Input
Amino acid sequence: MKRFLFLSMLVFIGLMVWVSVHEKEDNMSLPQKLERAMRLTRMKEYHNEDYDYTVRYPSFFEQTDSSLMEKGTCRFSFWQDSTEIVQTVFVEQNKDSLTLEQAMGKYASDLHATHQKKGDDYFILAGHILTDDGQITNRRYYAKFVKHRKLWFVQTLAYPEDCEHAVQRLIQEINNWKVW
Output
């Protein structure tokens, strides 16, 4: 009988701990939960055979069916409530044979970039995503353009502004991304 009471008490204490932990998590905002998930998640790798590049993405992101995408494109996303985070990679022709500096200026202007950084064979742009009529939204983008011959390999991340801290791991992945 004492053993039964002891076990019952352990189960009750375990249940109380489990409930208090999950209640604490439920009080966290979605960006806080997302930040924690991003920090703890395992990263998966996707390899594009058409252009021979690899990209890493969080294991809890959903991959868009590649048959719905253009050749060389991949897309991974997370959606919950009104929060959407999208990581995309695509390849496009450098039809005008733009130099790194020319392309950075052109795309920075087109995308209204508020942050620019140039490397040896790449540049990074970041800023707010604008509406069709030019209004600033509460969504941001972060993009890395890597030049290779007559191609641009582009990895982008679009996310809500309140998730800026939550996506830092993905931004670091983009910063470290090497096409070859």
Q: What stands out?
A: Strands lie at 43-48, 53-58, 62-63, 74-80, 83-93, 115-118, 122-130, 136-148, 151-160. The two ends are 67 Å apart (CA to CA).
